[in-house]
Design brief:
Keywords: Methyltransferase, S-adenosyl-L-methionine, Transferase. This protein is 43% helix and 15% strand. It is α/β, with parallel strands linked by helices and 350 residues long.
């Protein structure tokens, strides 16, 4: 019996993910108060560059921190575009105020999670990123040890990530129009479940799963279990260093770009566009921050999770659209899937 990748969950698991990521709110808020004295530094409004220099952070951690604080309703942009305190933070998070609660929040300052978050913010490196031997488990980068190069660890991580993907894949397949799709190149495809759902919906479609060699052992098995193995191809490589397969007219980047910083995102998108034929399409399936980088809170906290485990963060529709447009794509409006995710489709001109 073959499994069905198009069946949808009867209930929406989004609240489970929101509760799971809630600890990042504690860690970011405590770090802002105790380590960076951010609210005290904003007794008078400041532009982002000035505040970032005062707290001593690089752009990526600064965006992660301030996006979360804005989503919590503690920071805002004033009429001049400067960051300023909200009435809530002004009353309760300025030292010396009658209703100050910063010392209460500061009771968590020595907890392992808060100390680890402060270290991540200061160094702008994911967990394990300081030690090339330990490596960054959630990503592959040449010269750094990764779980993706160890068979047992790669299998465990790939299957763990599939827990969310199996919920979301039927929604992506239902809303992504692949009527004219011939071959789908799934970059960093993991279990291949997103491609498998699309293969089950579109019987003429073929798919190429592109990932690290140890990871690819999993989608080979999945393809058999879901009855689509004969339409699947498996290609190993480094998506930054190696040439991408050129025989696909659809490329899928599902939950890939959020693992990388802005230069790498731009480079990977450009590489994808180069590999596409005229009229080909690039699909970016991910979570999205508001264009103003002020929420939603659940995505801002997921961005903090990504920040601590990878070299990336969550990005906005505006950011993705800019990178796709500058690479020569015409971008369609975002379409939502499930668990805060959605996708953008960029069409390559003739």
């Amino acid at each position: 019996m073959n499994y069905d990748a198009l069946s949808r969950p009867a209930t929406d698991p989004v609240t489970i993910f929101e509760h799971f990521r809630g600890n990042y709110a504690t860690e970011l808020l405590t770090a802002a108060i105790v380590e960076f004295q951010l609210f005290d530094k904003l007794r008078t409004p400041k532009n982002s560059d000035q505040l970032r220099q005062e707290v001593g952070l690089k752009p990526r951690p600064f965006v992660v921190l301030t996006t979360a604080l804005r989503a919590m309703g503690l920071l805002q942009l004033d009429t001049r575009g400067d960051l300023s305190l909200t009435p809530l933070s002004q009353e309760h998070l300025l030292p010396g105020g009658n209703f100050f609660v910063g010392d209460y929040v500061g009771l968590a300052a020595q907890s392992p999670g808060v100390r680890a978050m402060i270290e991540r913010l200061k160094t702008n490196r994911p967990a394990g990123g300081e030690d090339k031997k330990d490596g960054a488990a959630f990503i592959f980068r040449e010269g750094v040890e990764s779980a993706m190069e160890d068979e047992q660890k790669a299998r465990h991580l790939t299957l763990a990530l599939a827990g969310r993907a199996k919920n979301v894949a039927p929604h992506l397949a239902a809303k992504l129009d692949l009527t004219h799709g011939e071959t789908l190149l799934d970059i960093g495809g993991g279990t291949g479940i997103y491609s498998i759902a699309c293969l089950q919906k579109y019987p003429r479609l073929k798919a190429i799963i592109y990932d690290r060699p140890e990871v690819l052992k999993v989608p080979r098995e999945m393809g058999q279990s879901y009855g689509v193995a004969e339409r699947m191809e498996f290609v190993s490589g480094d998506m930054f260093a190696d040439s991408l397969p050129l025989n696909a007219n659809v490329i899928l980047l599902s939950n890939i770009l959020h693992d990388w910083d802005v230069p790498e995102c731009r480079r990977l998108i450009a590489n994808c566009v180069k590999a596409l034929p005229p009229n080909g399409q690039l699909v970016v399936h991910d979570v999205f921050l508001n264009d103003a980088l002020d929420g939603p809170l659940a995505v801002a906290l997921y961005s903090a999770a990504l920040f601590t485990m990878t070299e990336g963060r969550a990005y906005s529709v505006q950011e993705y659209t800019q990178w796709m447009t500058e690479s020569g794509l015409r971008v369609k409006p975002k379409i939502d899937t499930l668990i805060h995710a959605g996708f953008l489709t960029g069409l390559k001109s003739l």
